[in-house]
Amino acid sequence: MILGLSLGHRTVREAEHWLTDQLGSLDLPDLVACTHLVTAPYPHVALSVAVAVAPDRLTGLPATPPELRAAADQAAAEHAARRSGRAVLYPGVARMVGTLTVGEVVGLSAIERVALLGGTTAGSEVPLDTRDFVRPQWRDGQLVLVAMPHHSGGVAPFEVPDPTPCCADH
Q1: Are 140 and 146 in contact (CB under 8 A)?
Q2: Could you tell me which of 161, 165, 113, 166 has the C-alpha nearest to residue 16?
Q3: Contact, 59 vs 21, CB < 8 A?
Q4: Which pTM does this prediction carry?
Q5: What CA–CA distance (Å, rounded) separates 25 from 52?
């Protein structure tokens, strides 16, 4: 079952915290919860939640307001098609800490591939410094972690845990 939610979160960080607070402790082994940037009816972050359990395990989640229903449906459809969505919660996310090889990342989690910037796939023995922040994305039917070269000689996720906000004072 894939559920789309749109609650008007203005930032990815806000949506991530909500997902973690609401779903992080439910002990659902196949849970995949994603964020989706949407533009209608205004720019915000919609959510998709995939679970292999009965919907009653997700009781207590708020209903999407009618004006955001199309955004919620879009998020659910993109997740179902495995076309887009940035996974915040997924099988193995708790193990994505410290430095692991790419092979360990793929073997210990729902991540199916580690792609380097430019499109090549990282080899299984390449060390990946997780920075304890691993957010794969649905791409062409696979959950893919995009990585870049890291000063340690291996790679690290492209997305950093605490990015500098656009137009921030430097």
Answers
A1: no
A2: 161
A3: no
A4: 0.90
A5: 16
